[in-house]
Write a structure and sequence with these properties.
7 strands; 14% strand; oxidoreductase activity; Rossmann fold; NAD(P)-bd_dom_sf; single chain; seven-stranded parallel β-sheet; SDR_fam; alpha/beta
């Protein structure tokens, strides 16, 4: 029974990931720690209340180091001496600048949430991950952070988001290299363009599909994929027209 912690669980992909995990057999998925900055999400509250104790909510503001440290202590208690198997760094922000770089006035805020906070959370939970059997850390990224695909997404007016996710991918590689000898697996995964508040109703895929396909990768991964940047696989989307294809392959950096 593997244990999971998901950041940014109050809505969007984070909420869908927790919901999907809770739907899987308890023999496969044990304790699910859903973290969120606020505890006022009705959907997440309902998940917690109907999970027979499998899903537990921990307050965690990923941008606040004191909140991260306090959450790590609470999670340690909830795991009752056991380690954490999977950490999914999902919390993130996206900018929107209609004038591109000239209008980009929030790079520090976006970078802090999407990169620095991922480092701070991972760092704080390393002791629990070391005690876990799986030792897997997943960083939710995007193909918009790929240098190789920069031309494809030239028109997307989200410069700070692109910059921060490119940096997140390198952070993932740095962690993968440093902790490889300890049996860790660090992955960046692009979940696709999903119909969430962040992705909009015009997006390609329902958020539930993104969550399912992300977890397909997560639950099959291991040290052989350490440091990789992977795309989800959605049958029928492998060679789709347009900017986005979901072929399950490694994303070109």
């Amino acid at each position: 029974m593997a244990s999971y912690l998901v950041t940014g669980s109050s809505r969007g992909l984070g909420l869908a990931l927790v919901s999907r995990l809770a739907s899987l057999p308890s023999a496969q998925v044990g304790k699910i720690i859903a973290t969120a900055r606020q505890d006022n999400s009705p959907q997440l509250t309902e998940l917690v209340n109907t999970s027979s104790g499998r899903v537990e909510l921990v307050k965690l503001d990923v941008t606040n180091k004191s909140s991260i440290q306090e959450a790590a202590k609470l999670v340690e208690g909830k795991l009752q001496g056991k380690g954490l198997d999977y950490l999914i760094n999902n919390a993130g922000l996206m900018d929107w600048s209609s004038t591109g770089l000239e209008g980009m006035d929030n790079l520090n805020d976006i970078f802090h949430t999407n990169v620095t906070s991922v480092h701070n959370v991972t760092q704080a939970f390393l002791p629990l991950l070391r005690k876990g059997e799986k030792k897997v850390v997943i960083n939710i990224s995007t193909t918009l952070g790929s240098f190789a695909k920069a031309e494809v997404y030239r028109q997307s007016p989200t410069p700070a988001y692109k910059i921060s996710k490119a940096a997140l991918n390198m952070l993932t590689v740095q962690y993968a290299q440093q902790y490889e000898a300890e049996g860790f697996t660090l992955l960046a995964i692009s979940p696709g363009w999903l119909r969430t508040d962040l992705g909009s109703a015009r997006a390609d895929l329902p958020v539930e599909t993104g969550a399912e396909k992300v977890l397909d990768i997560v639950q099959q991964t291991g040290p052989h994929q350490n440091g990789k940047f992977l795309n989800i696989h959605v049958p029928g989307w492998e060679n789709a027209s347009g900017n986005n294809q979901y072929d399950g392959e490694e994303v070109a950096w």
